[in-house]
Write a sequence for this structure.
C-alpha cells in the first residue's frame, strides 16, 4: 500500500513527543536498529525502505528517497524506517535485581547511553521521573543502539513510587556522598541518578537511605551522567 499524504504527514511529525503520544506510534531508523526491532516483541506497523535496502528487508514496503527524507529525523537518512506501536508500560512490583531510577534526565542521548549500559550488564528495568526525556525520542533510540527493545523503561511519580518500595535500600548520588567503592550492593536496592545540571531533587533526596559518589582526583567539575551511570552500574554488578 503506497504512502498517502496523511501517512507522510503523520510519520514526519513523530519527532515530536505530542504526536507520538497522540498517534500511539514512534519511529525507528537505521538497518541495525530496525533489525533489532524486528527481533523484539514490539508490533511493527510498517517497515519502509528505499530501493537500496530492499535486498536486506525483502518484505518491507519500498518508498522513494524523497519520502524517506521527509519522514526521517536524521540529516542523512538511512533509507530504513520502522513505524512501531507504542507498548504499554510494564509495572514494576518487585525488584529481582538492582533497579535504576532516573530523576529529571533531560538529554535524550544520555538516556539512550544509560539504557545501553543497563542492557550490557544484564539489568531489565529503569524507572524515570515524569519530567525525564521521552524514551521514544529519536535521539534516545539511536544512542541506545537497539537496547531500548530489551530494557523495560517506565515513567512514574517518583515520590509515590519510591514510597511504595520502602522495603528496599534507596541509594542516591551526590558529589558529597560516600565513595561508591566502599558501598555494599549485595542486597537488591534502588539507585537514583539525578538530572545533568541539578542532580536529584530535594524531595527525592529526602527518601534516600544513603548517598554515594564517584571520587576523583582531577579538576573536572563533574562527570557526564552517562559516564557516571556506567561506573555506578559496573560497581553494582561487581558486588552483586
Amino acid at each position: 500500500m503506497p504512502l498517502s499524504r496523511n501517512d507522510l504527514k503523520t510519520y514526519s511529525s513523530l519527532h515530536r513527543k505530542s504526536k507520538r503520544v497522540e498517534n500511539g506510534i514512534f519511529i525507528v531508523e537505521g538497518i541495525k536498529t530496525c533489525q533489532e526491532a524486528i527481533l523484539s516483541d514490539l508490533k511493527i506497523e510498517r517497515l519502509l525502505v528505499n530501493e537500496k535496502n530492499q535486498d536486506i528487508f525483502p518484505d518491507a514496503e519500498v518508498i522513494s528517497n524523497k519520502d524517506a527524507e521527509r519522514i526521517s529525523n536524521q540529516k542523512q537518512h538511512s533509507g530504513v524506517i520502522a513505524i512501531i506501536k507504542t507498548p504499554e508500560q510494564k509495572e514494576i512490583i518487585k525488584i529481582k535485581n538492582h533497579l535504576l531510577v532516573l530523576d529529571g534526565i533531560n538529554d535524550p542521548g544520555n538516556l539512550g547511553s544509560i539504557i545501553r549500559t543497563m542492557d550490557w550488564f544484564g539489568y531489565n528495568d529503569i524507572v524515570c521521573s515524569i519530567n525525564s526525556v521521552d524514551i521514544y525520542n529519536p535521539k534516545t533510540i539511536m544512542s541506545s543502539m537497539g537496547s531500548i527493545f530489551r530494557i523495560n523503561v517506565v515513567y512514574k511519580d517518583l515520590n509515590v513510587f519510591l514510597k511504595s518500595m520502602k522495603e528496599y535500600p534507596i541509594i542516591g548520588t551526590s558529589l558529597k556522598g560516600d565513595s561508591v567503592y566502599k558501598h555494599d550492593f549485595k542486597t537488591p536496592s534502588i539507585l537514583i541518578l539525578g538530572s545533568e545540571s541539578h542532580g536529584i531533587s530535594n524531595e527525592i533526596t529526602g527518601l534516600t537511605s544513603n548517598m554515594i559518589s564517584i571520587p576523583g582526583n582531577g579538576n573536572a567539575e563533574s562527570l557526564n551522567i552517562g559516564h557516571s551511570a556506567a561506573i555506578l552500574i559496573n560497581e553494582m554488578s561487581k558486588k552483586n
